[in-house]
Design goal:
Blueprint lengths: L2 E5 L8 H9 L3 E7 L11 E4 L8 E8 L1 E6 L10 E2 L7 E5 L5 H14 L4 E6 L2 H9 L5 E4 L10 E7 L6 E7 L8 H11 L7
Parallel strand pairs: 1-2, 2-3, 6-10, 7-8
Antiparallel strand pairs: 4-11, 5-9, 5-10
Length: 201
C-alpha cells in the first residue's frame, strides 16, 4: 500500500490533523522538515534537515500595514464609521491559524488580550481570501490587512479599527547579496524608489 510524504519546513504546521487521521487509518506517513521543527506527530517518522548558516541576507523594509475590520454588510457594526476592539467581544470571529498564519495570529491575540476582549472564535484559517469568503457567508467578522480593502467581496464591508500600535504589520524584502542575477540590482533600485522605509505606503 502507498503512503504519504509530508514536505514542510515547519511540519506538522497546518497538516497536524490530516497526519493524525491518516495514521489512525493505517496509512504510512513520513515527514521531512527543518531541524527547528521540534514537534513531531506520533506515528509519523520525521527526517530533519538544517540549512547552512553564515549567510547574510540583504533586508529592505517595504511597508507597515494596519488591520481593518471585515464585516458582513448586514451586520449592525457595518453602520459604524469606526470600530474598536471592544466591538468584537463575545461576537463570532474568524481568526488566523497559529500554524499557518502565526504572525497575524500572534499580533491579533496580543491585541485582544491587552484589551481584555474575548471573541467567539468560529474558525482558524491561513488564507485571507478564505477568511473573507466566510465573512461574506455571514459566519463572523475578521481583522485583515488594510490592503485587502481593494478587493470587491460580495456582502463584505471594511471598517477602520482603533488599535495600538496603529500599524502593527511589517513587510520586508530579503535577498542574498552574493546573488549574481543581473536583474537583482535594477530590481532593488526600483524597489528603493517605490518604498520609502520612513513612511507608510
Amino acid at each position: 500500500m502507498g503512503g504519504v510524504l509530508f514536505v514542510h519546513n515547519n511540519f506538522p504546521g497546518q497538516f497536524r490533523d490530516l497526519a493524525q487521521v491518516l495514521v489512525a487509518r493505517g496509512v504510512r506517513c513520513v515527514a521531512i522538515s527543518q531541524s527547528h521543527a521540534a514537534e513531531d506527530v506520533p506515528g509519523v517518522p520525521s527526517i530533519k534537515y538544517a540549512l547552512p548558516r553564515g549567510t547574510t541576507f540583504g533586508i529592505m523594509p517595504l511597508r507597515r500595514e494596519r488591520f481593518i475590520a471585515a464585516i458582513h454588510a448586514r451586520d449592525p457594526r457595518a453602520d459604524k464609521a469606526r470600530l474598536t476592539l471592544r466591538d468584537f467581544d463575545r461576537k463570532p470571529f474568524i481568526m488566523y491559524s497559529a500554524d499557518g498564519a502565526g504572525y497575524s495570529f500572534r499580533i491579533i491575540t496580543a491585541m485582544f488580550e491587552k484589551a481584555e476582549v474575548n471573541p467567539k472564535y468560529v474558525h482558524h484559517l491561513d488564507q485571507n481570501h478564505t477568511i473573507l469568503s466566510l465573512v461574506s457567508a455571514g459566519l463572523g467578522a475578521a481583522l485583515v490587512p488594510d490592503s485587502l480593502a481593494m478587493l470587491a467581496v460580495p456582502n463584505v464591508v471594511f471598517k477602520p479599527v482603533k488599535i495600538d500600535p496603529p500599524d502593527p504589520l511589517e513587510m520586508f524584502m530579503a535577498w542574498r547579496p552574493e546573488n549574481r542575477n543581473p536583474a537583482l540590482a535594477p530590481f532593488l533600485a526600483l524597489c528603493r524608489t517605490l518604498f520609502d522605509p520612513a513612511a507608510r505606503r
